Structures are given as C-alpha cells and as structure tokens.
Amino acid sequence: MTFSAELWDSGAAKVYDKIVRHPFITGLTDGTLDHESFRYFIVQDSHYLRSYSRALALVSARATDEDAVSMFARHAADAIEVERELHTSLLGSLGLTSADVDATGSGPTTTAYMSYLTAVCATGTYAEAVATVLPCYWIYRDVGRELLKHSSPDPVYAEWIAAYGSEEFDAVVESVLAVTDRLGAEVGPGERERCHRHFAATSRYEWMFWDAAYHRLDWPV
Ligand SMILES: Cc1ncc(CN)c(N)n1
C-alpha cells in the first residue's frame, strides 16, 4: 500500500464521508447554503491561506530532495496566489473587501488549525510536515471533483467548485501525492505513527472549518 493510501485509510476516510454529507457542502451544490455562512468561510479562509502559505514555505525548507524543495516553494507562492485571486473575486461577489477580512480577525477554529499547521511544520520532521499539509490539498481536490458532478445553481458557489474541481488543481495535488509516496519508504515506525496522527488531526480540522462556517462560530468570550 502507498504511504498516502495508508494515511488516508487510517486518518481521513471516515472524516471525508462526514465532510461530503455536511450541510455546508451539500448546501453548495443544491444552492441552499446561506450566503452569510459562505461569507464567514471566505473571510476565515483568507486568514487561513496566509498561514498555509507560510507552512508550505517551512515544508519547502525542510524537504530532503531538490524537486520537493522547489515544488513546495512554488506552491507557497503560485498555488496560494491562485487561491487568493479566487478569494478576491468571491469577496467582491459577496460585497466584501480585504479590509473586511482584516477587520474580522480569525475565529477559534481557524486559529487552532493555523496554529497546528505552523507548529508541526516548524518543529516536526519533514515527513510530519508533509502529512500535516496533505489533507489541505487532497480533501479539497476530492470535494471539488465530487461537487463538480452537479456544480451549483448559485454562480458564487459554482465558481468556488470549478476552482477546486479543476484539472490544474488536480495536477498540483497529484504532484504532492507522488512526493508523499516516495517519502513513505524513508519513514520509520515512530515517525510514521506521528505522521498518521497529524494527518488525522488536520483532516478533522478540515471538517471543523466547514462546520465553524456553517454555524458562524465566534469566540465564546
Ligand atoms: C481550510 C482550507 N483547507 C484547504 C484549502 C485548500 N488549499 C483551503 N483553501 N482552506
């Protein structure tokens, strides 16, 4: 079994089933999701992407082969840029600006997820860092592909679905999966166990991120 399949089976398979049945996700395709929840999501995702970009730069710095160094560095810059452009367009369609993002600040789930990503990518091994960022790529690609089958009657949601269901995003994710699988041969038992834990944790954070948006979760105090 490949290292990526092993991570998915132990950490994401059950979570992924819950993600595709979550009302935030089903609401995108049937168009019933409240725009207020999607606004919350895009604002929080704008905060998230700033941290994610830094996390990918850390993964690049710790990569053990040159192709992976340049791939993660490219993703920290280009792939994030593509997502930022998407956000700018979606924020505009939703009547928001980047000033609104700054004024809102990051919510509890976003803050927890960003902190986890940053901590592991800064202090874990290279393999742990890859396992931690992998669900961010993989789950979005699979959700995008799944939702693209029906897209959405709402043009804002259809634009979001088209971006993550695109062939370009698929190619980005396939390149990260290939790096993960090559890395699998070098990872010993203790480190492997930590990779499993990180992959499961960030898969759960992906579900929590959508759930927080659906409920528009705020700091309790
Ligand atoms: C929370 C989250 N996770 C993943 C992705 C896809 N890079 C994203 N934009 N936001």
TrEMBL record:
Record-linked InterPro entries: Haem_Oase-like_multi-hlx, Thiaminase-2/PQQC, Thiaminase_II, Thiamine_Salvage_TenA
Residues in Thiaminase-2/PQQC domain copies: 14-214
EC number annotated for this UniProt entry: 3.5.99.2
Sorted UniProt keywords: Hydrolase, Thiamine biosynthesis
Reaction catalysis annotation: 4-amino-5-aminomethyl-2-methylpyrimidine + H2O = 4-amino-5-hydroxymethyl-2-methylpyrimidine + NH4(+); thiamine + H2O = 5-(2-hydroxyethyl)-4-methylthiazole + 4-amino-5-hydroxymethyl-2-methylpyrimidine + H(+)
Pathway(s) it belongs to: Cofactor biosynthesis; thiamine diphosphate biosynthesis
Function in brief: Catalyzes an amino-pyrimidine hydrolysis reaction at the C5' of the pyrimidine moiety of thiamine compounds, a reaction that is part of a thiamine salvage pathway.
Family: Belongs to the TenA family.
Protein name: Aminopyrimidine aminohydrolase
